């Protein structure tokens, strides 16, 4: 961690270069050890009494523009130097090399290091110093004679809570106490049956692991011989002497494909609770009643599984595992030389992915209908564009299906770019205790910089993963020469490697030594070397019992360092390995009181018992394994999970699938779901040969462990086509939060449908005997017209465009299949928009797709349109090349204007939660010329101040000690260009008492703000309040200005009236396009709504969809005694008893209307009449005396309740409604609240991240023909669930006694909120990524009582953020700043 301060050392030492006869005198060079075993401790000499010391030496040397270094030399007898690699510039040199010392009891000191230049063939000498400035010295001590070098301390099986490596054993040796240094020679395990790895913990402790090889033959009769040339060999008995249980494999195993491996699912029973016998497989526990009764998952290929018996013999188990299965994808392409893109073509029935170029970041997983151009029975044909640079002559392309296939295509190069890009600068700016902004300058002469990769330790202790910087991270300059920024989880001490690629596919790699020489970053060191700095660590508790509940655990550790190192240089993170697919990092914060770093986390309930595997990562070095830490610190470093109950880390699985077709219902399946824990939720997707979109069915398992479901896919005999149907998607979740997802033929890991993924057990053939219409027309829809036009909206700063196209068909275009428009840019980022129907006139359907382009998208964008179908499932999609071929008038190429000069606020931290530090994330910020303007609204009036940020980077602003206010209007201005961001409105903290109202209006001058050091921690420094002009408070008419200043709406009678397309309580949201289809069998609708977010973990370039499912239902009717809480009678609705009603009054072509009724079996046969209306165009309707505006994509439910047999006239009728919201993302926050506003209405808000389900409960209804007051209240029902990704609540609508009927009016909206759930006080949050995700066509069934208005709305400012694909670390950092 000291190497970064090498340049500071040079300045501190005030090195003066004096040339005297070609020699540099009084100069100093810094020695940094490389490949050292222990920090600050040299090794013993070898058998020839020589010590080898590897180093990197850096020092000053004026080359005067000529000459290079060729060699190094030293003048002390008994010391020689060998240079391996030489680095130099005009002022300094660097040499990676090695010294060889003769053994000597006297230390080598005052070493003069010489380097030679070719220009004058003279030697230039300098004195060697350590990184801290002290003189460098070295003692080469001969190895003493030791009789008993090693004594075995322990040998334990490597069975941790996450996976069983039962053929691995770890142990510790005590090294002879007379030794004071590490040995020069490595320890060796001379055996044909074992592989051994050794690692020094300290001078007197050696850790090791032994593992059996697959071809174990017991040739050594169980003896493990450990050798070192410095001593005689040591023989220990191997782990077969450990007491072992006998294992049996119950009921065989299930083998399934997870290309390019095989998956195995099997149950085991141990005879005792002893050691699991050695088995050469990587066992992942799934579930069991105890450690003696576990079901495992294994993935492997080309292996012969063997159990090793105590007598040394082996027993083959399971089966010989063959070479892994493959998908055999064939890629082809057509070239468009005019627009420089390939039309990639292939066939697959799997979901496909597009891996990123030049990095190991997660691939972009496509969703229906991207790329799908046609069906050929069971085969699906895909075509999509891939843009290439004009400097390329060979274009690489890879597709995962799920195993990855790649090929190259020859194209004609029209520009010459042979010179690789260069790294021009590298800098780090501290943000807080855990994160920094990494600034990288890079340039390329012709094609421009395409990608910068920075290696970061994130998901593997022994391997760095590439964080990516692309044009989305460009904060200044151009792709030919620019500066890029990304937020990284380390501070000034870090090690990494950097690679820079241009669009011509040439690259330059920079290793840690090069980066150390040029920019002073740390060199990579071994975990033993790092371990020397770890002085203390422990868990509390260290034996957590997860039998019944999740347990909060805190890990503490201490690092040997100075205060400056702790504050500015050192970063420590804890890598938690819950399973191979659930690895996340907790970033350490320093506890001043305890003098230790602390890392809080939670262990899930029913986790597998045993030793928990984790790792400690210091300064982005390779992680230190928990087994190594245990070797040094003993049991206090061991987190031993206790679980005496069930073990469950597995999602519910599909145990059985059978066809249950009848003549009336030919598409019916019986499915059996099983889990050792209660099952919470199941989603089943059905697709067919000619309808890949299909339908999703959400099932309620009612917390059963074994859930039998009968699923019927209802079809119209007059609109069906003979074809095969099958299960294409499965989602399962249990009450513990274990989630599984299966996409047919596309799985690479354990999944709930593993038993049937490649079988035909669920495939049902729908025949012509059921489909009554003979389909004579087989042509798909035709595209008649296509235009792309730029649109404008002053409320957002992004470039916007609208795609309009016209479609017809020989029969009828299916309005159930909405097409999707896609734009692809030069980085092959993909942006999508679901088409909306403008009108349908005489069979010609006009569609539009509205796009808001993320910043930096483009400049060239290629349009594709997929997902068109007629009512008989004749399908077609159009790639860019297909669109060009239809008509010369079709131009599917769009140029996105540059927004690089815009000043934009993308997101901020919460001022409602904390004022001591305020983060603003965005673009267009410049050091020295960026000002943050705050307008503060308090109970005493308003004031405005301009603040100079304490920290300014191109993408982040940090301000300390924000004055307190009830509300803030935030704007960022760049004073040189005079460009400003849009105004962002944020809530402030609520006052704690009446005396605080004075302080609410206090403001800090910009001078006091900027006077704080940019590297100092936020403090509550007192500031002198500046006087403000106060006004006499007047009661507000609305809670906000309804966006009046922006033209969004106006305030009328305490409520906001919004101008289309704006909507919401404060008019700061806009209506988003969504697919809403009424159910034909019960009063419900199917809603598809998703957002675009950046991918989890690292520095993103890809985007992925986040799907949200919302379920709102009228669940029951309660009669309450005297309007209280005592239930007199209760009726729970049965959705199967709703009856569809035909009506002749539904003549509005812009409103889809369906009618239903439900009869309650009581003395009056109380009937609920329901009307469901879906509005495609804006329309004004009347409820009571109120006029209500129905926006496009709005659904209204009306429930009319006839006479009810009240027990007495003082009782009330309470309708219970259930409302829930579910996200498919593991990482996020959720919360809910029930609000009373200034009117008589109440509001329910359920929110996950920035998506909110918003319910308005108007305080009146039509009771017996008259408007009358009703009350609405939150109801505590059993089974209510709240997690970070799902929220559920129950609301009671309370109606007084009536004789004839009651008509009620709640409404609901799905919004993108301007304030994230993470900013709410009582939010429920998770902070690490998970691999689970839902499909792109999540269906939300919405069943509501009364009059329900469902708006799918997106707040413009945050909608822009959610569509971005290039800064997800912001969201992580916002969570971290609150800890």
| Number of extended strands | 103
**CA radius of gyration:** 34 Å
Round the mean pLDDT to the nearest integer and report it.
82
DSSP summary: helix tally: 10
Shape: globular
* Most strands sheet: 15 strands, mixed
**Residue share in helices?**
under 10%
Assembly type of the chains comes to single chain
Strand content: over 45%
Roughly how many Å apart are the termini?
A: 25 Å
Given as residue ranges, the uncertain stretches (5+ residues, pLDDT < 50) are 1-25, 993-1036, 1093-1103, 1328-1379
What class do helices, strands and sheet pairing give? mainly beta
Domain DUF7034: 781-887
Domain DUF7035: 648-765
Keywords: Membrane, Signal, Transmembrane, Transmembrane helix
Transmembrane segments: 1339-1362
Written overview of the protein:
The chain crosses the membrane at residues 1339-1362. This is EGF-like domain-containing protein. The chain is mostly beta strands and 1379 residues long. The protein has ten helices and 103 strands. The protein has a 15-stranded mixed β-sheet that branches. A seven-stranded mixed β-sheet has the order 5-8-9-3-4-7-6. 48% of the residues are buried.
Topology (elements, then pairings):
Elements: H1 6-13, E1 18-20, E2 23-25, E3 28-33, E4 50-60, E5 69-74, E6 79-88, E7 92-102, E8 112-117, E9 123-129, E10 150-159, E11 164-175, E12 188-189, E13 194-202, E14 205-212, E15 223-228, E16 231-237, E17 247-258, E18 261-270, E19 284-290, E20 293-300, E21 306-308, E22 314-316, E23 332-336, E24 341-347, E25 353-354, E26 364-365, E27 372-376, E28 379-387, E29 394-400, E30 404-410, E31 422-430, E32 436-443, E33 449-456, E34 465-469, E35 474-477, E36 481-488, E37 498-502, E38 507-510, H2 512-519, H3 527-531, E39 534-540, E40 551-559, H4 563-569, E41 572-579, E42 582-587, E43 589-591, E44 596-603, E45 610-611, E46 614-618, E47 624-625, H5 626-633, E48 640-641, E49 647-648, E50 653-659, E51 668-674, E52 679-688, E53 691-699, E54 706-712, E55 723-734, E56 739-743, E57 764-766, E58 782-791, E59 800-808, E60 820-825, E61 830-834, E62 836-841, E63 844-852, E64 860-869, E65 875-878, H6 880-886, E66 893-895, E67 904-908, E68 917-923, E69 930-938, E70 941-947, E71 951-952, E72 956-960, E73 967-974, E74 979-980, ...
Parallel strand pairs: 3-9, 100-103
Antiparallel strand pairs: 1-2, 3-4, 4-7, 5-8, 6-7, 8-9, 10-11, 11-14, 12-15, 13-14, 15-16, 17-18, 18-20, 19-20, 19-49, 21-22, 23-24, 24-28, 25-26, 27-28, 29-30, 31-32, 32-36, 33-34, 33-37, 35-36, 37-38, 39-40, 40-44, 41-42, 41-46, 43-44, 45-48, 46-47, 50-51, 51-54, 52-53, 52-55, 55-56, 55-57, ...
């Amino acid at each position: 961690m000291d190497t970064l301060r090498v340049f500071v050392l040079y300045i501190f030492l005030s090195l003066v270069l004096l040339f005297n006869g070609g020699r540099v005198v009084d100069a100093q060079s810094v020695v940094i050890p490389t490949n050292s075993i222990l920090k600050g401790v040299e090794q013993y000499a070898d058998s020839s009494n020589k010590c080898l010391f590897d180093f990197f030496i850096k020092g000053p040397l004026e080359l005067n523009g000529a000459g290079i270094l060729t060699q190094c030399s030293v003048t002390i007898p008994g010391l020689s130097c060998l240079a391996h690699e030489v680095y130099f510039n005009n002022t300094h040199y660097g040499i990676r090399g090695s010294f060889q010392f003769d053994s000597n009891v006297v230390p080598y000191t005052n070493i003069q290091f010489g380097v030679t230049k070719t220009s004058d063939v003279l030697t230039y000498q300098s004195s060697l110093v350590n990184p801290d400035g002290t003189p460098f010295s070295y003692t080469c001590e001969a190895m003493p004679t030791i009789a008993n070098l090693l004594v075995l301390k322990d040998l334990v099986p490597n069975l941790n809570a996450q996976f069983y490596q039962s053929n691995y054993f770890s142990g510790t040796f005590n090294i002879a106490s007379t030794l004071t240094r590490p040995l020069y020679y490595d320890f060796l395990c001379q055996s044909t049956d074992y592989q051994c790895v050794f690692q020094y913990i300290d001078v007197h402790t050696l850790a090791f692991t032994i593992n059996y090889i697959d071809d174990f033959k017991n040739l050594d009769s169980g003896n493990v011989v450990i050798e070192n040339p410095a001593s005689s060999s040591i023989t220990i008995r191997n782990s077969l002497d450990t007491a072992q249980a006998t294992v049996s494999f119950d009921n065989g195993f299930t083998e399934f494909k997870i290309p390019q491996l095989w998956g195995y699912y099997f149950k085991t029973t141990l005879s005792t609770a002893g050691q699991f016998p050695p088995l050469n497989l990587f066992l992942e526990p799934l579930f069991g009643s105890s450690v003696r009764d576990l079901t495992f998952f294994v993935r492997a290929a080309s292996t012969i599984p063997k159990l090793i018996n105590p007598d040394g013999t082996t027993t083959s188990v399971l089966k010989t595992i063959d070479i892994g299965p493959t998908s055999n994808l064939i890629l082809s392409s057509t070239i468009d030389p005019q627009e420089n893109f390939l039309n990639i073509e292939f066939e697959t029935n799997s979901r496909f992915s597009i891996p990123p170029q030049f990095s190991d970041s997660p691939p972009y997983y496509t969703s229906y209908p991207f790329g799908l151009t046609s069906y050929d029975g069971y085969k699906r044909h895909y075509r999509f564009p891939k843009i290439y640079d004009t400097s390329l002559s060979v274009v690489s392309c890879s597709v995962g299906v799920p195993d990855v296939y790649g090929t190259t295509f020859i194209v004609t190069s029209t520009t010459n770019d042979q010179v690789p890009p260069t790294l021009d600068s590298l800098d780090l700016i501290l943000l807080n205790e855990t994160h920094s902004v990494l600034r990288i300058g890079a340039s390329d002469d012709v094609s421009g910089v395409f990608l910068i990769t920075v290696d970061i330790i994130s998901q593997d202790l022994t391997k760095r993963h590439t964080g990516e910087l692309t044009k989305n991270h460009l904060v200044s300059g151009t792709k030919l020469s620019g500066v890029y920024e990304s937020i990284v989880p380390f501070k000034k001490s870090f090690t990494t490697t950097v690679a820079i690629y241009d669009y011509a596919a040439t690259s330059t790699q920079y290793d840690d030594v090069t980066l150390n020489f040029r920019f002073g970053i740390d060199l990579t060191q071994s975990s033993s070397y790092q371990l020397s700095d770890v002085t203390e660590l422990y868990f509390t508790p260290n034996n957590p019992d997860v039998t019944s509940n999740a347990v909060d655990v805190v890990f503490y550790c201490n690092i040997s360092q100075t205060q400056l190192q702790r504050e500015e240089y050192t970063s420590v993170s804890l890598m938690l390995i819950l399973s191979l697919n659930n690895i996340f990092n907790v970033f350490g914060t320093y506890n001043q009181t305890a003098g230790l770093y602390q890392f809080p986390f939670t262990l899930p309930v029913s986790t597998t018992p045993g030793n928990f595997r984790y790792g400690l990562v210091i300064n982005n070095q390779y992680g230190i394994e928990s087994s190594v830490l245990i070797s040094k610190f003993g049991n206090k470093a061991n987190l031993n999970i206790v679980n005496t109950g069930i073990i469950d880390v597995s999602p519910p699985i599909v145990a059985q699938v059978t066809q249950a077709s009848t003549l009336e219902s030919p598409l019916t399946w019986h499915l059996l779901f099983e889990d050792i824990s209660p099952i919470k939720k199941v989603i089943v997707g059905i697709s067919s040969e000619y309808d890949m979109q299909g339908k999703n069915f959400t099932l309620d398992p009612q917390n059963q462990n074994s859930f039998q479901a009968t699923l019927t896919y209802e079809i119209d005999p007059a609109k069906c086509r003979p074809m095969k149907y099958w299960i294409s998607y499965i989602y399962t979740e249990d009450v513990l939060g274990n989630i599984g997802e299966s996409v047919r033929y596309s799985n690479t890991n354990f999944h709930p449908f593993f038993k049937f993924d490649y079988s035909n057990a669920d495939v049902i053939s729908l025949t012509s005997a059921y489909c009554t219409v003979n389909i004579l027309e087989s042509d798909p829809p035709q595209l008649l017209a296509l235009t792309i036009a730029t649109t404008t909206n002053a409320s957002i700063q992004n470039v916007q465009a609208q795609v309009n196209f016209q479609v017809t068909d020989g029969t009828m275009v299916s309005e159930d299949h909405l097409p999707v428009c896609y734009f692809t840019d030069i980085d092959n980022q993909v942006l999508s928009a679901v088409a909306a129907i403008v009108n349908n006139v005489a069979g010609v359907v006009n569609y539009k797709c509205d796009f808001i382009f993320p910043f930096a998208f483009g400049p060239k964008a290629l349009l594709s349109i997929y997902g068109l179908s007629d009512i008989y499932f004749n399908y077609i999609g159009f790639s860019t090349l297909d669109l060009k071929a239809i008509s010369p008038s079709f131009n599917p190429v769009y140029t996105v204007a540059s927004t690089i000069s815009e000043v934009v606020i993308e997101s901020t931290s919460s001022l409602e939660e904390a004022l001591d530090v305020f983060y603003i994330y965005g673009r267009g910020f410049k050091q020295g010329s960026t000002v943050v303007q705050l307008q503060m609204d308090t109970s005493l009036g308003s004031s405005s101040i301009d603040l100079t940020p304490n920290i300014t980077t191109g993408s982040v602003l940090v301000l300390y000690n924000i004055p307190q206010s009830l509300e803030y209007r935030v704007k960022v201005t760049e004073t040189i260009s005079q460009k400003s961001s849009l105004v962002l409105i944020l809530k402030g903290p609520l006052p704690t008492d009446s005396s605080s109202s004075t302080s609410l209006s206090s403001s800090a001058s910009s001078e006091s703000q900027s006077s704080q050091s940019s590297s100092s921690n936020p403090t509550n420094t007192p500031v002198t309040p500046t006087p403000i002009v106060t006004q006499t408070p007047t009661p507000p008419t609305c809670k906000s200005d309804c966006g009046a200043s922006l033209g969004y709406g106006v305030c009328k009678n305490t409520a906001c009236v919004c101008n289309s397309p704006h909507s919401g309580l404060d008019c700061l949201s806009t209506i988003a396009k969504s697919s809403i289809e009424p159910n034909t069998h019960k009063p419900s609708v199917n809603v598809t709504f998703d957002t675009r977010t950046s991918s989890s973990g690292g520095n993103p370039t890809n985007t992925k969809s986040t799907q949200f499912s919302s379920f709102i239902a009228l669940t029951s009717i309660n009669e309450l005694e005297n309007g209280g809480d005592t239930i007199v009678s209760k009726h729970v609705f049965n959705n199967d008893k709703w009856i569809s009603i035909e009506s002749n009054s539904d003549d509005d072509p812009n409103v889809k209307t369906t009618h239903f009724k439900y009869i309650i079996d009581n003395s009056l046969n109380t009937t609920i009449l329901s009307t469901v209306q879906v509005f495609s165009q804006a329309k004004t309707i009347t409820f009571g005396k109120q006029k209500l505006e129905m926006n496009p994509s709005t659904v209204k439910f009306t429930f009319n309740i006839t006479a009810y047999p009240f027990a007495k006239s003082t009782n009330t009728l309470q309708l219970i409604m259930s409302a829930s919201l579910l996200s498919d993302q593991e990482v996020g926050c959720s919360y809910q609240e029930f609000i009373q506003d200034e009117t008589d209405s109440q509001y329910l808000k359920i929110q996950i991240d920035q998506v909110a389900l918003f319910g308005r409960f108007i305080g009146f209804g039509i009771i017996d023909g008259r408007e009358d007051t009703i009350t609405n209240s939150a109801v505590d029902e059993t089974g209510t669930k709240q997690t970070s990704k799902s929220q559920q609540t129950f609301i009671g609508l309370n109606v007084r006694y009536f004789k004839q009927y009651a008509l009620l009016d709640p409404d609901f909206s799905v919004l993108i909120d301007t304030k994230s759930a993470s900013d709410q006080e009582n939010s429920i949050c998770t902070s690490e990524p998970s691999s689970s995700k839902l499909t792109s066509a999540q269906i939300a069934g919405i069943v509501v009582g009364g009059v329900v208005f469902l708006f799918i709305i997106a707040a413009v400012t945050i909608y822009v953020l959610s569509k971005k694909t290039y800064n997800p670390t912001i969201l992580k950092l916002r969570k971290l700043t609150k800890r």
